[in-house]
Amino acid sequence: MAIKAIEPLDVDALYQACATGQFDFESTDEIEPLRQPLGQQRAWEAIEFGVDIAQAGFNLFVVGESGFGKQEAVRHI
After folding, report:
1. In the 3-class helix/strand/coil scheme, how is the chain assigned residue by residue?
2. Cα-flanking dihedrals φ and ψ of residue 43, to 5°?
3. Taking CA 4 as the corner, what is the angle to CA 7 and CA 17, rounded to the nearest 5 degrees?
4. pLDDT of 60-70, one tens digit each?
5. 62 with 47: CB under 8 angstroms?
6. Distance between CA 44 and CA 46 in Å, rounded?
């Protein structure tokens, strides 16, 4: 079985139009910022749990890919 050569995408394949009438805002400046990153509910709850522990000497150890905002999330909470 031969491997098919990769062909460049057509410009039309890179754009997906949406009906702007479905939104109840004129500009994204009007949208309330998200409280947490999308898809990170469990991680957010774990950080909140760790921060709420009122015990001397307790530390949080946050692990994850670089650039995902771990440090920012801990500081925010």
Report:
1. CCCCCCCCCCHHHHCCCCCHHHCCCCCHHHCCCCCCCCCCHHHHHHHHHHHHCCCCCCCCCCCCCCCCCHHHHHHHC
2. -65, -40
3. 35
4. 888 888 887 78
5. yes
6. 5
> pLDDT tens digit string along 21-46?
899 998 889 998 876 666 678 888 88
Neighbouring residues of 36: CB distance < 8 A, sequence distance ≥ 6: 44, 73
Cβ proximity of 67 and 37 under 8 Å? no
Query: What is the C-alpha radius of gyration for the chain, rounded to an integer number of angstroms?
Result: 21
Per cent of the chain over pLDDT 70 is 94
